[in-house]
């Protein structure tokens, strides 16, 4: 999500309940598909990614397996924006699965400068089995995907960050043992109006409830998860001082979290700055930010694996229930 207007910031509150119950069913293949935004996948398909992420985490981390289904495969990492978690999780994840990664920073490729996006996509997709791009405008993802002959993963755009949401879902399931009936409060941003329309439509179809408010205490009341993000994203440095003033009342601190549910957790995609959340909350026992960061690895591994080949998890499906 992005700050869509520099007026008084909204604080968005998500209620998740009463969603459809899912049954064990045949999952369609993801092979060859793009991963640009989660709205391109239904709830069963999202659960399949999460199930596989949980399965891979258990196989590699707990059982210490050597499992390399992507031996001989390669991924090209196109980064207009610098990154820690996205780059490291993808490179180490692809390595564990037996494949290779090649990092292409802003100075390494000619995307949109001396070579068109379409031409770059055609060249790179002739040399890699899959691409991941971390960009500014979301249109770049769509253009790359349209011109590429191999799957394209959105590593982050100014509009969507689907890999982060998968990691958040996996973290919540690990902590609460479910995703259904959780109340999630997002503090600080005014979502893009088109994204709001899409979310409202999905909520009406699934039985979930979305509520938007300017009152942070109202939003976090009895919340199971309190979530915030970096207020000044890369490319928005000129807006720093103005945004700090706008968001002054939206700092997640001890006073704000008093109204949350007894079992509340705090989440942040990182990097984090104290002006967004105090140390007392960020490092509290309720904080799951580092578990959340690690899960970026297991979820991107699941996405890469499914886009390149069909995979059936070895371990039983966790309880997601959404």
TrEMBL record:
A GO BP term here is: L-arginine biosynthetic process via ornithine
SUPFAM superfamilies named among the record's database cross-references: Aspartate/ornithine carbamoyltransferase (SSF53671)
Is Calcium tagged as a keyword? Answer: no
Q: Give residue ranges for domain Aspartate/ornithine carbamoyltransferase carbamoyl-P binding.
A: 33-174
Q: Which residues form the Aspartate/ornithine carbamoyltransferase Asp/Orn-binding domain?
A: 188-306
Alphabetized GO MF terms: amino acid binding; ornithine carbamoyltransferase activity
What are its GO cellular component terms? mitochondrion
- E.C. number: 2.1.3.3
Which pathway does it take part in?
A: Nitrogen metabolism; urea cycle; L-citrulline from L-ornithine and carbamoyl phosphate: step 1/1
What is its quaternary makeup? Homotrimer.
Q: What family does this belong to?
A: Belongs to the aspartate/ornithine carbamoyltransferase superfamily. OTCase family.
Q: What is this protein called?
A: ornithine carbamoyltransferase
């Amino acid at each position: 999500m992005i700050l869509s207007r520099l007026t008084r910031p909204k604080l968005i509150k998500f209620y998740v309940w009463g969603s459809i119950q899912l049954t064990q069913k045949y999952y369609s293949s993801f092979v060859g598909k793009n991963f640009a935004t989660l709205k391109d996948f239904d709830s069963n398909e999202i659960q399949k990614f999460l199930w596989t992420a949980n399965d891979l985490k258990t196989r590699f981390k707990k059982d210490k397996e050597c499992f390399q289904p992507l031996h001989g495969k390669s991924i090209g990492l196109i980064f207009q924006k610098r990154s820690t978690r996205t780059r490291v999780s993808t490179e180490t994840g692809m390595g564990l699965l037996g494949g290779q990664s090649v990092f292409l920073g802003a100075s390494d490729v000619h995307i949109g400068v001396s070579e068109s996006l379409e031409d770059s996509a055609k060249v790179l997709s002739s040399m890699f089995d899959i691409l991941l791009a971390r960009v500014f405008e979301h249109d770049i993802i769509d253009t790359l995907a349209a011109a590429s002959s191999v799957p394209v993963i959105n590593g982050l755009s100014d509009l969507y960050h689907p890999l982060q949401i998968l990691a958040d879902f996996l973290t919540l399931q690990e902590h609460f043992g479910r995703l259904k009936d959780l109340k999630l409060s997002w503090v600080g941003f005014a979502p893009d109006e088109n994204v709001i329309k899409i979310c409202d439509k999905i909520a009406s179809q699934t039985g979930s409830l979305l509520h938007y408010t300017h009152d942070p205490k109202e939003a976090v009341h009895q919340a199971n998860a309190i979530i915030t993000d970096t207020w000044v994203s890369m490319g928005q440095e000129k807006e720093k001082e103005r945004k700090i003033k706008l968001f002054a009342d939206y700092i997640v601190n001890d006073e704000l979290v008093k109204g949350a549910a007894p079992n509340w957790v705090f989440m942040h995609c990182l990097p984090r700055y104290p002006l967004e959340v105090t140390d007392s909350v960020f490092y509290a026992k309720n904080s799951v930010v580092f578990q959340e960061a690690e899960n970026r690895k297991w979820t991107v591994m699941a996405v890469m694996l499914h886009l390149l080949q069909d995979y059936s998890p070895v371990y039983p499906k966790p309880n997601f229930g959404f």
